[in-house]
Design a protein that fits this description.
Blueprint (H helix, E strand, L loop, with lengths): L3 E6 L4 H9 L7 E4 L1 H7 L1 H9 L4 E7 L3 H12 L5 E5 L4 H13 L5 E5 L7 H6 L7 H15 L3 E3 L2 H11 L4 E4 L18 H7 L3 E4 L1 H4 L4 H13 L2
Parallel strand pairs: 1-2, 1-8, 2-3, 3-4, 4-5, 5-6, 6-7, 7-8
The protein binds cytidine-5'-monophosphate.
Length: 232
């Protein structure tokens, strides 16, 4: 299976986003567009990025009652993005509703479920969220629910990619944020690994944000991530 780097374009301003994408000239990296751009600028920004030739992971992490998620996913399907996601915590019925919406709309978008955010520690999960299990067990359980519901993969930490693949199969995608180069600052991410380590651990895609977007040379940082992660 082909591994790919996705750049998390967590800009809140379209001018900054397009200035950033222009740096890449004819290279068209796979980009992840999050809530801040979408809520601020709406579907038109997604259409414009698509028009420029990028693949898009629209990271809106839907989490609501199944009926609302179904109707929302029908709308997102019209945007022709390449990847969308929901929170696995929303239930199997909610994930099924999302999968059904994509099918009804004949969308080829890959549906992922977020297991646990990579900023969440096991301590927060146990003491604050009252999920009384180990992080690995929780991620695995949520991944199996996602598979049952018809998702093609999960968003998880690279640290859990191996066990997810073992339980859900080689073809089940593991899309993993929480990536830092060996010489980077971790920021608010708690469970991080390098692109090379993510490859070793079984990630299908890595999502890299600040290590590329905040770098002095984003194109060089992107190429470094591709080299470490994509090359055999
Ligand atoms: O800048 P950084 O590389 O930490 O960005 C990681 C990106 O991945 C952010 O856009 C964040 O919202 C997203 N993400 C995450 N953990 C998840 C799901 C998504 O960090 N479990």
């Amino acid at each position: 299976m082909k591994r790919e780097v996705i750049i998390a374009c967590d800009f809140d301003d379209p001018v900054k986003l397009f200035d950033f994408l222009d740096l890449f000239r004819d290279k068209k990296p796979f980009v992840k567009i999050g809530m801040e751009l979408f809520y601020g600028n709406g579907p038109s920004i997604v259409r414009e990025i698509k028009r420029r030739g990028h693949k898009i992971f629209l990271d809106l992490k839907l989490h609501d009652i199944p009926n609302t998620v179904h109707k929302s996913m029908c709308k997102l399907a019209e945007l022709n993005v390449d990847m969308v996601n929901v929170h696995a915590a929303g239930s199997v019925a909610m994930m099924e509703a999302a999968a059904r919406a994509l099918k009804e709309k004949n969308s080829n978008a890959v549906l992922l479920a977020v297991t646990q955010l990579t900023s969440t520690t096991e301590e927060v999960m146990n003491k604050e969220l009252w999920i009384d299990h180990k992080m690995e067990e929780t991620v695995l359980h949520y991944a199996m629910n996602a598979k049952k519901a018809g998702c093609q993969g999960v968003v998880c930490s690279p640290l859990e990619a191996g066990i997810v693949k073992e339980a859900c199969g080689e073809d089940f995608l593991t899309v993993t944020p929480g990536i830092r180069f060996a010489d980077d600052d971790k920021g608010d991410q708690k469970r991080v690994t390098t692109p090379a380590k993510a490859k070793e651990l079984g990630s299908s895609y890595i999502v890299v944000g600040r290590s590329i977007t905040a770098s002095a040379d984003p194109v060089a940082a992107y190429e470094r991530a591709c080299q470490e992660f994509e090359e055999d």
